[in-house]
């Protein structure tokens, strides 16, 4: 186990969440919060990506095709 | 954690996920997030995505970073798989070889939406399709 320093307010919020949702261990609660945080980031990434596709009028097949061309370019630069 | 499934993921799987997070590719990415599988990709995949996002999407550096950094993948440096590039010559389409070389170096299978290109490597590494992999994850 490791120790981290957190403010009294964050500690209080964590303890309240732990009680409210019936977690026995803060560790498990934090683990779930980290997973949710990462899921949120992934959804944000997807939103940015889809908005970019719309803006540039790209379809998924265009993205894959353009990426394939870049893959070839990288291969030639790095390995040929 | 189900440590038994470690897999090298091709770029197209990330694009499918980013385009449609509720897709089967999205379920794979979520399984990685929940540590049910462990995913890797060679640094060429990261570079490929980076160049596309900057060049074709005209994203700013921070937008590109949000996308790349959010993926639950361990990027594999060329130094790790370069010795396997010769074996990877079994694949005719040269640009795909780093993915096979990476899988060989790590002793993993490959997950791709373009199985056709990797078919000649079936005896060297397990080539997964998305459905098959989803069925194998408990």
Q: Helical proportion of chain B? A: 40-55%
Provide the CATH superfamily of chain B. Answer: 5'-nuclease
Instruction: Kindly report the average pLDDT value of chain B.
Output: 95
Order of helices and strands of chain B: EHHEHHEHHEHEH
H/E topology pattern of chain A: HHH
Radius of gyration of chain B: 14 Å
Number of helices of chain A: 3
Measured distance between first and last alpha carbons of chain B:
11 Å
Quaternary organisation: heterodimer
The proportion of strand residues of chain B reads: 5-15%
Instruction: Identify the strand order in the major beta sheet of chain B.
Output: 3-2-1-4-5
| Count of the separate structural domains of chain B | 1
- Overall CATH class of chain B: Alpha Beta
CATH architecture of chain B: 3-Layer(aba) Sandwich
- Largest sheet report of chain A: none
CATH fold-type name of chain B? Rossmann fold
pLDDT averaged residue by residue of chain A: 95
**Helix coverage percent of chain A:** over 70%
In short:
In chain A, 78% of the residues lie in helices and 0% in strands. Chain A has 80 residues and is an all-alpha fold.
Describe the structure in your own words.
The complex is a heterodimer of chains A (80) and B (138). Chain A has 80 residues and is mainly alpha-helical. Chain A has one domain. Chain A is built from three helices and no strands. Chain A is elongated. Chain B has helices at 11-19, 24-33, 43-55, 61-70, 78-81, 97-106, 115-118, 130-136, and strands at residues 6-9, 38-42, 73-76, 109-111, 127-128. The longest helix of chain B has 13 residues, at 43-55. In chain B, helix 2 (24-33) packs across helix 8 (130-136). Chain B is α/β, with parallel strands linked by helices and 138 residues long. Chain B has one domain: 5'-nuclease (Rossmann fold), CATH 3.40.50.1010. At the A-B interface, helix 2 and helix 3 of A face helix 1, helix 2, helix 3 and helix 4 of B.
